[in-house]
Design goal:
The complex is a heterodimer of chains A (109) and B (208). Chain A is α/β, with parallel strands linked by helices and 109 residues long. Chain A has three helices and four strands, in the order ββαβαβα. Chain A has a four-stranded mixed sheet, covered by helices on one side. The longest helix of chain A has 16 residues. Chain B is α+β, with helices and mostly antiparallel strands. Chain B is 30% helix and 33% strand. Chain B is globular. The chains are: A alpha/beta (109), B alpha+beta (208).
Chain lengths: 109, 208
């Protein structure tokens, strides 16, 4: 069974903090169920004073439009506070998701 | 994990086996009956076979078959939010049988169908109680085609399209990227309102 076509529950793990910068490691499917989990995590980090988020996508299997939406909204909120969210270790397929939506210039890949 | 082992040629008996974690998940033993009923299947448990398989007689709405040289799959799900992940899992499993296609093509089709399911299940207004969504998958030598049908009030895709995703991103919008994503993922898409709901047909060429 190709693991890329199975469902994987989304979770955020292994947070590393360095001042106002936090690294979050993402796992699973960033889909309609996973997007609110990410949105909540980004919001809580912002409220706690974090201004820069580095997201590690190596463990992410699937990104839907809901996942894209949660990322875009989060990026906007962090930039409004003088910070940013960067998307790291995206697979070629996941990078294409942002390219086909015309968002590869807007987000930090 | 109880998983699907095989379906008999008449499509009426579903054989489930304990796989120790591998396969298409049907859930644990307690959830099997409810899960199958959620797919519109009437399940009655029989005594386990000598090889450990559990045979379940079903009113079948979930099947694979070969017709006119194409591998085909169809399934229907209740029109409820919980069906979103089921669409992704079962369609993904069906697409995985298309071993002659690049995985990138299969993932694109899975994502497009998932986005359609989310749109229907989140925004669609069911036309009657017990409404369902239906998936038909055809995998031919050169093309994969999916027909997604729901039983919701017809919608106009031109009206439903929220517009340029880049402009939406600059506004910090957290929604409205699905239509653009679907259009970019597939090679062709047609929408037809039906008397009974909506029908969307989309396809992608298999680049080998």
């Amino acid at each position: 069974m190709n693991s890329n076509v199975q469902a994987h529950a989304f979770r955020v793990e292994a947070k590393e903090q360095d001042g106002k910068r936090v690294r979050l490691v993402l796992h699973g499917d960033l889909d309609a169920d996973g997007a609110p989990i990410l949105a909540t995590e980004l919001d809580e980090q912002l409220r706690a004073g974090t201004r820069w988020i580095d997201l590690d996508f190596r463990g992410v299997h699937f990104i839907s439009s809901a996942g894209v939406g949660s990322l875009i909204a989060g990026i906007g909120e962090y930039r409004d506070e003088g910070g940013d969210v960067t998307l790291n270790h995206l697979s070629v397929e996941h990078r294409k998701v942002f390219e086909i939506l015309g968002l590869s210039e807007y987000v930090n890949l | 994990m109880i998983a699907l082992e095989r379906i008999d040629t008449a499509g009426r008996i579903v054989h489930l086996v304990e796989t120790g974690g591998r396969g298409v998940p049907f859930g644990d033993g307690h959830a099997i009956r409810e899960r199958l009923q959620g797919f519109g299947l009437v399940a009655s448990f029989e005594d386990p076979a000598a090889d450990g398989a559990v045979a379940i007689e079903t009113d079948f709405r979930h099947r694979w078959w070969i017709e006119a040289g194409k591998l085909r799959y169809e399934a229907s799900f209740p029109h409820q939010w919980e069906s979103v992940s089921d669409v992704g899992v079962y369609l993904g499993a069906a697409l995985a049988t298309c071993t002659w296609s690049p995985e990138s093509t299969l993932r694109a089709m899975r994502l497009a169908a998932y986005e359609l399911a989310v749109n229907s299940l989140e925004h669609g207004t069911p036309m009657h109680e017990g409404a369902r969504v239906h998936l038909e998958l055809q995998m031919g030598a050169r093309k994969i085609q999916i027909v997604f049908t729901d039983e919701c009030e017809p919608f106009d895709p031109k009206v439903a399209d929220p517009g340029d995703p880049t402009a939406r991103a600059r506004d910090g919008a957290n929604r409205g990227y699905g239509v653009a994503m679907i259009q970019a993922l597939v090679d062709g898409m047609e929408h037809a309102p039906l008397a009974t709901g909506n029908r969307v047909l989309f396809h992608k060429e298999i680049d080998r």
